[in-house]
Amino acid sequence: MRPSNRPAAAATSSLGLGGVAAALPGQPPLPGEVILTFPDNRLASALFGQYDQNLAKIERGLGIVAHAIGNQVTLKGPPESCERARLVLQDLYDRVKLGQRISLGDVDGAIQEGALQGILFPAGTGADGEKLSFEQISTRKRGPVRARNTAQNIYLRALKQNELVFAEGPAGTGKTWLAVGYAVSLLEQGVVERLILSRPAVEAGERLGFLPGDMRDKVDPYLRPIFDALNDFMDPRIVERGMQTGMIEVAPLAFMRGRTLTNACVLLDEAQNAASMQMKMFLTRLGEGSRMIVTGDPTQIDLPHGQRSGLSEAISLLSGFEGIGHVIFREGDVVRHDLVRRIVGAYEAASRRAHDAAAAAFKGTPER
């Protein structure tokens, strides 16, 4: 295992260059040991996380043992896994040096990014010699935000390459949050002049009746998730000023009819609750110099029984057209919380079992 030449951390390995201590054929690989020493104790502490929670995440993700003392961490396990852990820690340390805070989700993303690099280019670099890395966006308030898994990486790439992008998948995969972040980055770069964020005003299986207040008070409860994401990427005072000047507009889907949206980034969230005619109306609002992002979860449709979701129809009709991207997130791409991932997985498994049982029952029905 070759010592790192990067200034971020000094790495030494008990295996020497190339991992000389090789196992005999048919036997499991001999355990390796990598010792990393980071120059700054304060940054090393931020890297390891509270109670070394980031190291524990790496241990679980890569099947190694990590032991930290001060600014030094010892990695033990299969040589290949130790090398991957070393690269992950060095990558995260570089981010900490730039002032970025490291969360468990960032650790997960760095592990997946390292896995992708290992699959495509075993040496960890692309054809031009540069290190392969996930796509990222950047805003003034939050700084760089990098994709945490392969699906998010494909999503960000699709957003940058297409004028219209459909993103479908379960809750917690970052569809809306990344879309809002990308929209804010376009606004700050001057690529677009305004943001238009919309959702269908549909209750999740409940009837709330008439809500008090003016129009904004009535629609705010439906659009709160978009406001939350917006405040993550922009200063709340700038958001408020932008809404007063019209630079930022948050409105229900029903208010889009008859408009032509030029030089704008337009986001439709919870699009699975848009009816077929509403979706057609929305998609035809796209004007010159604009980008459009449509996100939704086809498994959480709150439309009246028998009414088809406009999202599913639009994807089936428009996928494959030039300038239109389509990204599918799976249950394994959930980044909100490990428990959320397991919850989504349990519901998906139950849905598949019910579908299989229905198909088997239909197949066994005698023909008349």
What percent of the residues sit in helical stretches (DSSP H or I)? 40-55%
* Number of beta strands: 12
Structural class: alpha/beta
What strand line-up does the widest sheet have? 9-8-10-11-7-12
Q: What is the CATH top level name of the largest domain?
A: Alpha Beta
CATH architecture of the largest domain: 3-Layer(aba) Sandwich
Largest sheet: 6 strands, parallel
**Envelope shape:** globular
Mean pLDDT: 80
- The unreliable regions are 1-25, 119-130
The helix/strand order is: EEHHEEHHEEHEHEHHEEHEHEH
Using the coordinates shown, work out and report the CATH topology of the largest domain. Answer: Rossmann fold
% residues in beta strands: 15-25%
Distance between the termini: 70 Å
Task: Report on this structure.
This protein has 368 residues and is of the alpha/beta class. It is built from eleven helices and twelve strands. β3 and β4 (72-77) form a beta hairpin. α1 crosses α3 and α2 (53-62) packs parallel to α4.
How are the elements arranged and paired?
Blueprint: E1 10-13, E2 32-37, H1 41-48, H2 53-62, E3 65-69, E4 72-77, H3 79-97, H4 104-120, E5 136-139, E6 143-146, H5 150-161, E7 164-168, H6 175-189, E8 194-199, H7 215-233, H8 236-245, E9 248-252, E10 264-268, H9 276-283, E11 291-296, H10 310-318, E12 324-328, H11 338-363
Parallel strand pairs: 7-11, 7-12, 8-9, 8-10, 10-11
Antiparallel strand pairs: 1-2, 2-4, 3-4, 5-6
Helix pairs in contact: 1-3, 2-4, 3-4, 5-6, 6-7, 9-10
